[in-house]
Amino acid sequence: MSVCNYIIKKNRKRSKKWEEIQKKISKKERLVMKKRVLSLALAAAMAASLTACSGNSTTTETTAAVEETKAAENANTESKEADGSGVDVSDWKNKTVTCIVPYDAGGGTDTVMRALADAAKGSFKNISVENRSGGGGATGMLAGANATADGTTVTMITVELATLEAMGTNAGLTYSMFKPIMMVNSACAAITVNAKDDRFNTIEDFINYAKENEVSMGNSGNGAIWHLAAAGLAKETGAKFKHVAYDGAAGAITDLLGEHIDAVAVSYAEVANYVESGDLKVLAVMNDKRLDTIPDVPTCKEAGYNVVLGTWRGLGVPAGTPDEVVDQLYQIFSDAAQSDAFVDFMNKSNNVIDIMDGPSFEDRIIADLETYKTLVTDLGLKIQ
Hints:
By secondary structure, the protein is an alpha/beta fold. The protein is built from 13 helices and eleven strands. The chain has two domains: 89-185 and 313-379, D-Maltodextrin-Binding Protein, domain 2; 187-310, Periplasmic binding protein-like II (D-Maltodextrin-Binding Protein, domain 2). 48% of the residues lie in helices and 19% in strands.
């Protein structure tokens, strides 16, 4: 079975939105169409005038020219209808787009964004990825939210958009500052330790040890999803974790490899290469079921720990961005997400593609915000 379970979230909102998109003609297209209609009218008037002066031969030639122009117009319209979009994305060929990643280079969010940007590069004059880490993701997401609302700055927004607000560590960042374009992928937490650490061979070993001894647990930032995942596991089991925050998962994994911390709670995709090389080992995943890629690794629920937590990643633009621009970017990036190159990357990197359109993604963000507010309160993690 492919590790890339490609999920297209279809609902009535999406269907309605696509109908609107398919019927939509941009202002530029309408202006061009108006000019073409005017040209046809002038051509017809000229034809009538020439008929009076030159006879049937000129009339025939002019009429033929008009018919040829009409045929070209019809072909252009049919071409637009055939691509199934009705959205003009041609202008983006002349635009430069910057994609902001709110974490350090090398982590899961960074690698997914770079692969998606590479798959979409043919649609833009230029597209670049910029890492703006800090504040558990708040620094980069704030930079993206406060950018010019014209679609030329796209931010990889993550579940921390909800968790940081729930924690009170959002530094003024709120989900309403963004207009979501689409969700790209999702992943559950994987409790991972150094392969040389013979104290921990099962999740039960790990939890039992952590009940009696403080265990250092690396995460991707205070208030980030992997912090909440570890805190949720500690709450459920009575384990004692010393939470060590980094600006993204990459730093935490590096320190785990160097044996500077005891464990990390991150996505499996972020540690997969090190697991396959024998440097790290995964004790359990916080999912409803085992992952296809590591079927021998149990879930926390199987061990009696009822904790299911994970992340999502998607694209967003500043809230003031016109809907027409968002529709165009959705078309470009959703096509890129279905490209062979991106799907191949996600398969090989053990990432799960999980596409959701903008309105559905926004509903997910709002629902998750309420979920994490409750979780943070229950865990006593709210920063006043």
